[in-house]
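agent: user wants the full assembly modeled, not chains individually. Plan: 1) parse entity lines 2) check alphabet per entity 3) run joint structure prediction 4) return tokens. Steps 1-2 passed, two entities, 480 residues total. Proceeding.
--- entities ---
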Amino acid sequence: MLAGNGSSAEEGLDDDALVRRLVQQDVRALDTLYARYSRAVFSLALKILGDRAVVEEVVQEVFLRLWTRAHSFDPQRGKLLSWLLTITHHRAVDEVRRRRAQPQIDGLDEQLASKEEPASDPSETYAQIENREEIQRALGLLPIAQSKPIQMAYYGGMTQVEISNTLKEPLGTIKTRMRLGMQKLRVLLEREPTEAGWK
Amino acid sequence: MEIIDARQTNAEEHGDAAAYLLGALDAAARARFEAHAAECVECLREMGELQGATDELALSVPTFAPPAYVRQRLLTRAHMTMAVSPAPSERRHLMVDGSSRPLPPPAVELRKEAWWMGAQRYSGALAAVSLVVAMASGAYAFTSQRQLDDVAQRAEYASAQLSDTLQIVYQPNMVARTLSGMDAAPQATGKVVLAPDRNKAVVIAYSLPPLEKDESYQCWLTQMDDKRFDGGMFKTDEKGRAYWVLKTPEAMARYRWMSVTKEKGKGGSAPAGPRILGGQL
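--- prediction returned ---
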């Protein structure tokens, strides 16, 4: 579902064509890509950071980076959405770690602790809900020893060392579990789901 | 047959592809892994294999649309960067309703080389700072509408202006715009130094025509929806130069055009006199 008013002429273009237009400083291409992917970028950052004002700034930074560095995007190396989500994740995790590294500020700990899971958005499409539930099911099929470090890292911004210390497990064990968990997740998501689960 | 370098597989970073993609490496470990992966076929392959699963983690969160104003801010900021980038063959200004119109030719053509872009961007700022420093040292007979006769008052005023100026020119997103002389004063010129997300700008003007006793210059800013803002009145020194720190009710990104007119008395709510300077912001 589009979040903005991307130009109708640009809406039919694929990502690679739009990126080429970005290199030519075509703002309409930026607007179209924003309409296409801002929801995913915003949602990921919101999951990690929880602070809407900061997330709004992160979203702008991610798309401004796309705008100013479109020439460095190589479609041979991956999809544009992957690129955007990776930048978003790095930016959000950096912010989480920056906050953790700051001296305690009055009320900051309470603010972080009170980061609530936002209520669902009625504009979310059925396909988006279904896709999300499918991934959650796949995560649920992983052993907890594997899914927990994965989620602590990806959504919690924790490093392997921090996870190792928190779970009181050796670092090598955490590395292995992360690796095996991601490999298994890849296999699960590539399979075709059935009513009972995965084939 | 694929030859795997034993030195690569024995490296501490080998096998960290999953951790890397999950963001679970600190900055130092991330840099080490990137250096390692650049030469390790196995790690590169694993990264390619796991990228899809990583994307799915990102897409598995509850989704929300960002507020509409985030889009407008982004487009405004993108538009601001265009004036200091190489001008493409066709630039268009994206209107708030999503339509677009061709932009007029830029007032200043910038070359592509980074050092030249930097020099162009900072020349206005350096001019502003040097003018402020000279003013603060008393070298210029700058007078404001308030006619500052008291030396201490003037020094304090200059100090405040200098502080404001430095705050603006040291913004990492600071940009400089050119003001050109209009029909009534083709020799006049000026520069505006601003940060798009701030509500202040430094304005300097040169070669302005001399004023009669009952005349002043008045500055105007026009927003994207054609609303006009009165930027205040000023006079020049004996050499036709003027400098001031402009403060606006909204961020500078909201304004698209600045002009200066010559006005009688205390000026007015709309330009009445001849246009002296003008330029796109």
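agent: reporting back. DSSP finds ten helices and no strands in chain A. Chain A touches chain B through 75 residues (CB under 8 Å).
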